[in-house]
Amino acid sequence: MAFYAVVSILIVNIFHPFFRKIFKTDLPFSITLADITFAVFGTYVGNRFDLYHTFFAYDIMLHFISGILISLTLYEVFFPSSYRNSIPLVARVSLSMIIGLAGAGFWELCEYFLDIFTGLDVQRNLVEDFELIGRHWQNSGVKDSMNDMFNGTLGSIMAGVVIFFRERRKMKMSEDHLPAGK
To answer: Distance between CA 179 and CA 68 in Å, rounded?
Structure first.
């Protein structure tokens, strides 16, 4: 459990300054708070209290939320408000969803290497056989990874919908405040 506590503390202390320095952008406080809360609950609390086994939908929920947070966070990084109007909204939303999908795949690669280098079983490869929907699975790790990527993708699509309507509302509000004839 010390490993997860250390990871959580590092993420909390490095996350915001890292984005500010590397990407030269300031993330909105609400996104920073959501990302930090997610990191702490996803890594430490989930493992400390064994929520992966005691709460059926915990893993599904985490990967869905990670898709949302990855898309929202990187939307702010790659499309700062200063030049959002120069890129069409549909292109920005599509790229944010693709970024979320890529983030879900990258996360699964991280889980794979974590299993290799630490001997953990976060991808559930050590489960021999279990039944799901009347079928037996010999390697539940493949099913787990595909399910995680699917949920991350659904989350990124949800984030894309949120971004689309939020940005469209902002565009509409700015048009309403223009003087007549402009």
So the answer is: 36
Q: What local confidence, expressed as pLDDT, does residue 135 receive?
A: 56
According to the model, what pLDDT value does residue 67 have?
Answer: 93
For residue 152, give the nearest of 31, 61, 73 by alpha carbon.
61
Of residues 176, 173, 137, 164, the one with CA closest to residue 71: 164
Measured distance CA(25)–CA(17) in Å, rounded: 10
Question: Half-sphere exposure of residue 73, counting CA atoms within 13 Å on the CB side?
Answer: 23
Low-confidence ranges of the chain (pLDDT < 50): none
In this prediction, residue 59 carries a pLDDT of: 85
Picking from 174, 63, 71, the residue whose alpha carbon sits closest to that of residue 123 is: 63
The predicted model scores a pTM of 0.78
Give the β-pairing of 130-132 and 135-137. antiparallel
The C-alpha atoms of residue 88 and residue 92 are separated, in whole angstroms, by 6
Q: How far is the CA of 66 from the CAs of 34, 73, 102, 147, 179, in angstroms? A: 10, 10, 12, 13, 41
DSSP secondary structure letter of residue 87: S
